[in-house]
Amino acid sequence: MKYKTTVSILAAFILAFTSLSSFAGQGQGQGQGQGQSGGQNADRAQQVDRDRSYDWDRQQDRDRDRTQDQLQMRDQDIYGHEFMSDQERDQYRANLGAAGDSAEANKFQLQHEQKMQKRAMEQGRDLVPPGQGPIYGGEFMTVQERNEYREQLRTLGSEQERQKFMAQHQEQMNVRAGALGREVEEAE
Q1: Are 79 and 109 in contact (CB under 8 A)?
Q2: Which secondary-structure segment (H or E) carries 112?
Q3: Measured between alpha carbons, how far is 188 from 132 in angstroms, rounded to an integer?
Q4: Which residues, at least 6 apart from 170, have a Cβ–Cβ distance to it below 8 Å?
Q5: How far is CA 90 from the centre of its chain?
Q6: Is the separation of the CB atoms in 176 and 140 below 8 Å?
Q7: Which long-range contacts (CB under 8 A, 24 or more apart) does 147-154 make?
Q8: 129/23 Cα distance (integer angstroms)
């Protein structure tokens, strides 16, 4: 009987001990969970700060890259480059790079284009925008007409409008050439 009592007490003791340690573990787990939750919130806040910082750095890199691209622009990519001195082209790049936003850059470029158009007219020379080449029937046009044609073609909004404009122009040049008894040389 003593043996049964000892085993029963020992079993009760072990049971009580495991229950107690289990209860204590839950309390610690809750405390740790709250600590982890607080730590997780702090980690999340730090991650958000890092993300914002990363986004800011990326935006600064994009702005710096855009400025570098504008500064490294080839002479041929500048509208009216053939009417500018080296110093004016360098100043153009610097001014374009210093433009604060796209609206300011667009305003600067529009003013520059008007200035180059005026120079071309004063010198009686063609102003060929980047990406444009010879004009169909250009030999039957005045310098002013060629410059106006190029400018109008450059400012048309859609490809469909450009195609229509070029088709009308081609008809006009064919009429002019026919009136002179000549043929239009194909533009390359």
Answers
A1: yes
A2: helix 102-123
A3: 11
A4: 136, 137
A5: 23
A6: yes
A7: 147/117, 147/120, 147/121, 150/126, 151/117, 151/127, 154/129
A8: 82
